[in-house]
Amino acid sequence: xxxxxxxxxxxxxxVSDAAMNTNGDSAFNYEGGRFEKNGYVLHFTSNAAxxxxxxxxxxxxxxxxxxxxxxxDFNKDAAKEVRFKIDTAYHGVAATGGxxxxxxxxxxxxxxxDIDVVTHEVMHIVQAYGRSVGPWWIxxxxxxxxxxxxGVDNDGGRWKLPEYTDRQKYSDGYRVTARFLAWIEAxxxxxxxxxxxxxxxxxxxxxxxxxxxxxxxxxxxWSAYSKDPVL
Length: 231
Prior knowledge:
Elements: E1 2-7, E2 10-15, E3 34-37, E4 40-46, H1 53-74, E5 81-86, E6 94-97, E7 100-103, H2 105-110, H3 117-127, H4 136-150, H5 174-188, H6 192-201, H7 209-214, H8 218-227
Parallel strand pairs: 4-5, 5-7
Antiparallel strand pairs: 1-2, 3-4, 6-7
């Protein structure tokens, strides 16, 4: 909402914490708790009195930079209204359920540059697998692959995919699986991540999905990757 006062013959206006206008022309009021742009709404709450205003700003900006792209590319039916909570009672990094993400303020106090935690977590909202038939490591591997591809400042968070070692397994999840997926996209079959994401969400995923999508089984793909893991 916009408020204006007539002072000395001029209208002086300010914008409430409803955030941006529909065209996204004006700046957010980052002190607020509700942000809206182009049909997406983010609610941001915190019970950490000393949570960094600069980190909050970057988290809000990351959401509106990344989330609409992920919805467009991976699930057009994903939630348009999302809630972030900075919660001193939560101890971890972040956790997502439905359209809600809870973050540990202690993590950001120690790692203020790790803004792409947002990218990983909002991909879980887009995934929306429900009672998935797929293993956890694919879910987390896809989310870290998305961080790798869509992240706004992975370098600032000192985050990168690991180099391959023979101690790794495709089922390690997170960054190890993400790097494997990146290799598949680059060297085996482009579009694999989107196809897996769709199969997991509509509960059609089976162990045979890898061969149906890429022409090779999961074990065959990993064997080829382990012999030439260069991205």
